[in-house]
């Protein structure tokens, strides 16, 4: 947890400094009424203060109470691979189309997670994809027809 | 008016949507890893094309059903279906070990119903009065109300206040994105046209609550949960009824009060009710060994939160919990602004919500007592198939709000952020509070200074403002003083 806390503290400190840097360029107060940069700066300063408090508290944390966060086990690697697959899916979704991309994505994930026969995975994926396509596209009038194929 | 509300709610279509919502909610709640917030976030896109009353009541049905449904897996699998059912595990699973899971679920169903009904009565009685009071609020009072709401972050931050504040501040900072409402100046838009109208908070919520939870499920995707218990004798015994009538109304009131506090959710309601039942019991040592009180109290407590959470949401636009925050989004999509004016301009909708919530609780009772075996079968739906489907629902749900792929990207980014926040033991609820209350605080602060021509005394110019200042100080200093007193006693 110590390592994670230091990372969290570092990320939020950097984030707050970037916010302050950008917000300082916004128009100033006018007749006593704060400008658009005042609130972002106040919140960024609060963020910075909390990040520093977290850093100091973590430094003082006894080694015995430190808990290791699992970020490298097989189970977690599965999550990373899933995230990667979803990033790819969302990137090509508007280009190719909902039905094709979603059916392929579902088939692959269901096959990977459940190890069912391919034909079952394809059937489940197709039924669910078409169901969602009809529900949102026809019943709820969400424009679902996009991309090169469908 | 009463006739209009009765006609609006008791028509076939609305009752169907409420029952559908409760049914879906119970299924979602029963499945470990799918929370009530996730369920409501996933069903939300379906309401975009619906009228306000059926749409909101569908979501309320899911909410009520899911909070109750969590107890099914808590009792059968020793795994709470939702965090709200965590306290139910303590005694509920002991019943299962004795082969009395049906009895435990019967107690849970009736207690949830009693807790839910108590909260609906409170919602019905308190909300109109609170809305009348809120009509007297102007910019300074709304600013101080938002600050009070934000101060609750101190209480819901879990183990680390610093992490809670960081998360809340992240939510507030996200709310700055877009054109400034007072000056029209674009902030943090980085020349991106999609950011000009601000960060749409529904994709952020779907990402933080639904997608991140789905990622967490992947970690255990290859280890199936198995139910071996047979469900028999669901109807509570005579002695169980006595316990339910003694325990559930009190816990329902406790849950309702906790629900009213912004940010405090059903999980806290359940644990506080359990603690109260144990403290006031003549035999506290039996708690945890499988006694009816240990199920009745947390289950009435968590369902008591459902109505309570809607009180500040409907009357002042301040969410009582994460689900209420999503309901604010649902109302906004329908072109409705939660707050005191909702009670004067959309009275019919407000009272339909009250009555619809009561119907949802009745539906929960009937479905719970009659179809438990069916809901137990839901536990056999493999996560391996369900989780990829949740991915698709998250994607379609985020896309459907503005038919915009940018929102889908936002959802995924916040799904990933939410996952790592969970890993770092950071609660995501403060971010939601920040996202909703941040703009309320900022715009009313600046509006108040415009009204007073820059004088800060306007923030202490009314008794209501003073009340919020005192409440905020109490919320912020209370835990610190409590800690100091505890340390002194220990020393």
Explain what this protein looks like in three dimensions.
The complex is a heterodimer of chains A (150) and B (491). With 150 residues, chain A is an all-alpha fold. Chain A folds into two domains: 2-65; 74-139, no CATH class. Chain A has five helices and no strands. In chain A, helix 1 runs antiparallel to helix 2 (38-60), helix 3 (74-96) runs antiparallel to helix 4 and helix 4 (98-114) runs antiparallel to helix 5 (118-139). Chain A is flat and about 60 Å long. Chain A starts with a helix and ends in an 11-residue tail after the last helix. Chain B is mainly α. Chain B has one domain. Chain B has helices at residues 2-9, 12-30, 36-43, 52-77, 86-97, 101-134, 139-151, 153-156, 161-176, 201-218, 238-260, 266-280, 293-316, 322-333, 340-345, 347-370, 372-378, 383-402, 405-423, 429-451, 463-490; strands at residues 178-179, 186-187. In chain B, a hairpin with a 6-residue loop joins strand 1 (178-179) and strand 2. In chain B, helix 6 packs parallel to helix 11. The mean pLDDT of chain B is 87. At the A-B interface, helix 1, helix 2, helix 3, helix 4 and helix 5 of A face helix 9, helix 10, helix 18, helix 19 and helix 20 of B.
